[in-house]
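Our example copied in:
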Amino acid sequence: MARVINLIIVILELIAYRKVRKNREFKGILIYYTHLSNMLTLGSSVLLVIFGPKPAVEVFRLLTVSMLAMTFFVTAFILVPMTHNIKGFLFSGNGLYHHTIVPILSVLSYLLFEPTPPMIWICLPAVVTLIYGLVMVYLNAQGKVDGPYPFFRVRHLGGPKTALWMVALMIASTIFSAGLGFRKPAASDVKYIFVHGLSGWGSYDIVDEFFPYWGFAGGNVINYLNKEGYESYSASVNPSGSAWDRACELYAQLTGTRVDYGEAHSKEAGHERFGADFTGRALLADFKGSKTAIIGHSFGGATIRLFSELLRNGSEKERAATKEEDLSPFFKGGNGKNMTALVTLAAPTNGTTAYDLYEDENFDIKSIEIPEEYEKNGNFMSNWTRVKKDGRADWDYASFDMHIDNALALNKTITTFSDVYYFAYPASSTMKNPDGSLSPDPEVTESMFMRGGTYMSKYTGRTKGGFEIDESWQSNDGLVNEISAGAPIGAPKAEYDKDSALLPGRWYVMPTTRGDHTAFQGGLTKRHDVKPFYLDLVKLIDRAVNS
């Protein structure tokens, strides 16, 4: 969304400067703070549209938005009262754009959609404004410039009055830059890393700037947590890849290295060993030296659990297949002592019947009536999450790992570490019918999950590997069974009790969230304000880790 608004700002600035050129020499506008702030804004908005919220762009945006806020303040509350020309300054000509629309749009975009740079940069707008003011006062004193604003006319006002004006303006500038650039001091020494699920996206993907995976239409959760003092990041792993491939991609993003899928794995899976190179664009600056908590939604849960295993214990198969000097540190193991907590959200930790029920010949799926609307939207959901095969082995996709037998087999390879805190958050959007059966509740279930949720709420059977699916698996969120989203079967676990001390080395199964599979993201048409949930979550992790 920030890019969209800033593209609009660029267009408005170009329209405004076309009007300016009709009215005066272009070089004559350079002495005006209004034009200086708007020209810099044009530049910062162009950079944001092209490059996104890079660190340097964030600083530039803080500078220009603060200057625009100052422009609007001076115009509306000083120049308009002095001249009584509200229409001329705020609602006509280039003033409509430079004094009113662009400043308001810029401030809204910055406050609602743009990340803020470190607090050290808050002083920058005030410093630039001070330099501009001192230069203008000097030029007025030398008689080289008259104005361009009344409070700079030192020869007319005299030194004391000019000094008072300068102090007042500097105070105002400081207030604007502090208000726009303020972020709460670090509330935790833990860095929070978020990993999306099947068909998802993260901060390396441009779609995240328009429609954040973490927050959806309710606003970017990552930006929100950062402004609350909890340093947070959003990874971008393969939307349909296996837990192994996604874990390798997560490691490369966190360490700022090239993706290495492993010599043995890549040969068996039938794809290239190396992937994208994240050198110079690591997700966070010092992964190995930072306390981290990793949070995975949906298949992101399997991703982060396998990631933790490889980080700590490496891969014996990769060590055997690769020369020591050519082996990724990820597969060597012995890392990750800084990993303090893992959190799964609506994750198919033990697989999901959403896949298995279609392969059970004893389940009469055609006998279940589905309204046409749900059938249509269910097809949309199936097409959205359908894996586009690219030549790799069939077992190297998320869809394979989410089958119950395969998920249980994967679980046997993953350790529950004694020094890591684990939290599992299930979700359910089913309701009990008068006859005691379950079905998805249309009040809380997105239409695209109604068909799948209906099948899951009716299904009992047995997997190809012989695992029995009984009625306890029928409660679901439209894509993942509630019981599956708890602790891995066989792992140490405990029911969460807010009054009891938390201990590492066991899975705390949290109270079931009422909502469908998108509830932890903010929902689509069934909207959820998830910001309070995530703020409570990071606070819970911080208390556990630092207790």
